[in-house]
Structures are given as C-alpha cells and as structure tokens.
Design brief:
Layout (H helix, E strand, L loop, with lengths): L9 E5 L7 E3 L14 H7 L9 E2 L2 H13 L5 H15 L3
Helix pairs in contact: 2-3
C-alpha cells in the first residue's frame, strides 16, 4: 500500500454514497456526522486517483470551523465531549 500524508485543513475526496466522491473540507460543516478513521481505513476510503490534498482550508477558515465545533449543539451526544476535547487540544484551550 502506498503512503499518504494528510495534514490538518486538507480537503480530500472520500468514496461515500451516493456518488462515491464526497469532498471533505469546509464547504458545509455537519458536526453531527463527524467520523473518525485510523490511517489505514482512511487510505482505503479515499477516492482512487484523487490528488491528496485536493484542496485545503486556510488557517483562518480552519479556526472558524474548530471554534464553531466548540459551540455547536448539533453533535451526536455520545461523541460531543470527545470531539470538543480534541478541538480544544488543537486550539490549545484548557
């Protein structure tokens, strides 16, 4: 398997229904559908032939997304604290 590198803020296509090419970036943030994949699972799901990254978020947009996640009430309850803690760690907020 080839090695890929994905950095915070990168956008990429995942092989997901219905069209098998969903762009994961800053276009619409649906916090309730947050997903977590390890590197090997993510590599399997990336659309074949898609450049990595396909695009990227600026630092400003990425921070807006992260801060939006801290105040969003749209998280699925069982994942809310886990992901909010991860965002706080990225933003170095205690």
């Amino acid at each position: 398997m080839s090695s890929i590198t994905i950095n915070l803020g990168d956008a990429f296509l995942l092989d997901t229904p219905p069209n098998k090419q969903h762009l994961y970036d800053e276009s619409v943030i649906a916090y309730r559908y947050a997903r977590e994949y390890d590197a090997s699972e993510l590599a399997k799901r990336i659309t074949s032939g898609s450049p990595i990254p396909k695009g990227y978020c600026s630092a400003t947009v990425l921070e807006q997304i992260q801060r939006g996640g801290l105040v969003s009430k749209r998280w699925v309850n069982e994942s809310r604290d886990k992901y909010k803690d991860a965002i706080k760690a990225c933003l170095e907020i205690s």
